[in-house]
Batch of 2 targets.
Target 1
Amino acid sequence: MQTIELDPTLSHTLAQARQPGLTLVIGNKNLSSWSMRPWVAAVAFGIPFTEIKVLLDRPDTASNIAHYSHAGRVPVLLAGEMTIWDSLAIIEYLAEQFPDKHMWPQDVAARALARSIVAEMHSGFAELRRAMPMNIQARLPGHGRTPGCQADIGRVCEIWEDCLARFGHHHFLFGEFSIADAYYAPVVTRFKTYGVALAPALQAYCERVLAHPAVARWVDEAMREEDPTTLRDSDLPG
């Protein structure tokens, strides 16, 4: 996978982005949970792509993203002349284009549940996002314990317990690693950052997710990022 960080040679970067094949435009690996989801899914299933990173929370961030999508957010997938924004739309496109990869569970009931929990993560858990923003480099135990966040944590645990019991067989949520695990991987990193205590079976699941090669690679690259916008202890709610 080729990685390009957006820099003053913008015309060259844009030209490369529209070459044949897939190009995934993402934000900082340390901070961008939405970017993590399709990136991990693509890497986990061996789908080749070129990566372009747009640094977030900078004066030129919006203008740089606008070169790829008028939606103003990352991630963005460029597929030939097509522009696909929104993490779930990107993942669905990849699943359609690479059906042999079986990115969703093959069992009908498992697939229906997987789509449901991914949709719930996509549209919900607002308090968890607000109180515990993704920050892979940080260790902030005890932060963000608002009532709403605690409720969201409880719901995530309920989802994981149900999926692991019904389909996971104490491995990933639906046995083999799937889109569902990629979609909840940023939550796993949040729980580590904020020191969320979990039942032993759920902690073991988190450790398996973090050990997956695609997730481990993202985390490793996030840990090596140097970015002054990284959140500090004093930036976060108590």
Target 2
Amino acid sequence: MSTRSLLLALSIALLAAFGATATLSAGFANAADRSDILAEANDANEATIPIRAGNADLGFDHYAQKHNLTKYYVIQHAIRTAKPKTSGARVEYLVEYKHAKSKGKVDDRVTLHIVAQAATRTDDGRYKTPDNKNIGVITAYCEGRNTCPDWLRDLSG
């Protein structure tokens, strides 16, 4: 079997494993790209929560574009420090962040809300991971805002 045939067969197998009904965003060539794990964090319950490349519906591609959260650290920090709220395989993390420009006076605050799936498939069965690891972060956003502030996005460890 040629390398090209092998890659095509692998792509088809991944599409089938990840859900043929799942749509791809324009930025991703195949299912292997959107299922790539970009980063991970362990929560207080010792669950490993991946941050996957995703697509327009879930994962990094979804929340980075829609909610201005383009750096992994803030997501990882919230997962590591928040008390997880679980409902079946659904896990939510809420962390309040405060911003102070000068002299310690808080000039902005936001609550970061992260929704994750601690299972190998979504509840609706539409997505399944090809690597048998958790789906991970579905979305992340700042409550009460369309986009998170730049100062939150730019936090670093």
